[in-house]
Amino acid sequence: MIRLLVCEDQALVRAGYVTIFDAQPDMEVVGEAADGRAAVEAARRLNPDVIVMDIRMPVVDGIEATRRLAGPGAANPAKILVVTTFHVDEYVYEALRAGASGFLLKDAHPAALIDGVRTVAAGDSLLAPAVTRALIGHYAERVRPASPPGAQVVDVLTRRELEVLRQLAAGLSNAEIATRLSITTETVKTYVSRILTKLDLRDRVQAVVLAYRTGLVSDSR
């Protein structure tokens, strides 16, 4: 069973999440929180497999709560899926930097939300396509460094691994990368695993953020 903590300040929305998740044979909601501070306390007490986190909540917002539970200082980083109405580039980027494993918009179909939870629980990560393109299209321009693009990344990764990383940063799924590079999905998974290991990253979301922070890829619009 995937044990879930639902963190959402709107009671009606929170109840909807609980109903959706508890209806799944492999999911169980073990806790709820209506603000960020309560979310942090509940997460540390319950140790859920996945935390579904809103961004704008009272007392402590979702980004700060995510940072406390999954950021660099977290002893046992939580797996956090951010689900929010706020399709704002800066929110996306800050949530990912804070340690979120995925980011979905609240207008996503319930099936996408369920799949997202399962993806994060399995140790993978995801970005809604629209969110990925927002990150690529606007906010990434503001974090591009002046130093040579991705020098440290280029030195560590092979040519093929760099190709895969660039595709990841473009928001492509494993299947889409496999098609574009004419390789199998399993081969893509192997490359992604190598990239994460070599760059000491937790998941592919961190790989996307790193690709933009280092200037390895940029806005191509």
Q: How far apart are the first and last residues' alpha carbons, in Å?
A: 43 Å
Strand content: 5-15%
Q: At the third CATH level, what is the topology name of the largest domain?
A: Rossmann fold
Number of DSSP strands?
Answer: 6
Characterize the overall form. globular
* Mean pLDDT figure: 82
Q: Helicity level, as a percent range? A: 40-55%
Q: Which class best fits the helix and strand makeup?
A: alpha/beta
Report the uncertain regions: 143-149
**What is the correct CATH architecture of the largest domain?**
3-Layer(aba) Sandwich
User: What is the H/E order?
Assistant: EHEHEHEHEHEHHHHHH
What is the tally of helical segments?
A: 11
The CATH first-level class of the largest domain comes to: Alpha Beta
Organism: Herbidospora solisilvae
Keywords: DNA-binding, Phosphoprotein, Transcription, Transcription regulation
GO molecular function, one term: DNA binding
Pfam family, one: GerE
Molecular structure report:
- The chain has helices spanning 11-22, 36-46, 62-70, 89-98, 110-121, 129-137, 151-156, 159-169, 174-181, 185-198, 204-213, and strands at residues 2-7, 27-33, 50-53, 80-84, 102-105, 126-127.
- With 221 residues, it is of the alpha/beta class.
- It has a six-stranded parallel beta sheet, sandwiched between helices.
- One of its GO terms (molecular function) is DNA binding.
- This is Response regulator.
- InterPro entries: CheY-like_superfamily (IPR011006), NreC/VraR/RcsB-like_REC (IPR058245), Sig_transdc_resp-reg_C-effctor (IPR016032), Sig_transdc_resp-reg_receiver (IPR001789), Tscrpt_reg_LuxR_C (IPR000792), WalR-like (IPR039420).
